[in-house]
Amino acid sequence: MEYYELKKVYVEVLNEIVKFMKKNKCGCPMEFFAMYSYLVRNGYLSLDKKFCYDIDVKNDVFSLRGINVIEGRGVCRHITSMLTDILVGANYDAENVDMNINDFIQINFFFDDFLYNKKNYDLEANFNVGFNKVNFFSDWINNCYFYNHMATFVKDNTTSYIMDPTNDTLFFVDVNHNVFPVNNFSDKVRVSIKKKKRNVTDMELLQKDVYKYRNIWNRCLDSNDSFGKFYRKHRDMYEEVLNRKEIFIKKREKVRNYFYQK
User: Fold this and answer.
1) Average confidence (pLDDT) per 10 residues, the chain, 262 residues
2) In this structure, are residues 75 and 134 in contact, taking their beta carbons and an 8 Å threshold?
């Protein structure tokens, strides 16, 4: 009962986010990805208007991990899960995907010049998030068959992408159905999603979509007032989600303790 009540209020928040994004001209997965990354990093989707990357976060709620974004603390599985939930809510074919990657990812690799030079915008100074450079794992882990990261796999018509909102990074699928980061065509990435499900990424469409991503970011930088209004309007809903989560966690712990004592 507590779980379904929690899921209900969380889905209501997701629906509000999707409506807001559509109202702000998000019309493809890449545009949702861009605006989501901006909203998370500036705290607009978190109760206290601040999100921090925190590897010590606890008390996940299975299949509702995006709630941790509202809580203001989380890692890749939480950041990714909310993006996946938003894309599914916008009627895209999306799911979480486990990955095994090394530390080659460069933050904001495909729009560095656009943001840093044209906008003269200091990402590290202005964003509340603690960046994940994907280097928390030893070489031994990276070289073995363990998954150490999570991202969002999304299909859009005949193409597919793997979006990494934790690092503002994108992966593409080549003609052999292998996965590569867009900024490095030589580093193949191991992912959990089966090859038969991967559509080859349309590279011509990718270039157009990257432009859309940049366009949305440019609009976000000039639209702080509307984002602030969205946050203030929905803060009570965020609080309700976290209150419901607290009730669910307490009930879950009570049930666990009961069976452990048996």
Assistant:
1) 91 98 93 94 94 85 92 93 97 90 47 36 36 37 62 87 87 81 64 74 82 87 86 97 92 70 59
2) no
End-to-end CA distance of the chain: 23
Closest CA to 161 of 125, 191, 190, 200: 200
Strand order in the sheet with 159-164: 179-181, 169-173, 159-164, 149-156, 93-100, 190-191
CA 237, chain centre distance (Å): 20
Q: Is the dihedral of CA 119, 124, 130, 133 positive or negative?
A: positive
Enter the tokens of residue 191: 């992912």
pLDDT tens digits along 213-253: 888 988 888 876 899 999 999 999 999 999 999 998 888 77
Q: Do the strands 73-74 and 52-53 form a parallel or antiparallel pair, or are they unpaired? A: parallel
User: CA-based diameter of the chain, in Å?
Assistant: 64
Alpha carbons within 13 angstroms on the beta-carbon side of residue 211 total: 6
**Listed residue (166, 109, 128) closest to 52, CA to CA:** 128
For residue 108, what pLDDT is reported? 41
> What is the DSSP pairing of strand 149-156 with strand 93-100?
antiparallel
Contact 28, 154 (CB under 8 A): no
SS (H, E, C) 92-152: CEEEEEEEECCCCCCCCCCCHHHHHHHCCCCHHHHCCCCCCCCCCCCHHHHHCCCCCEEEE
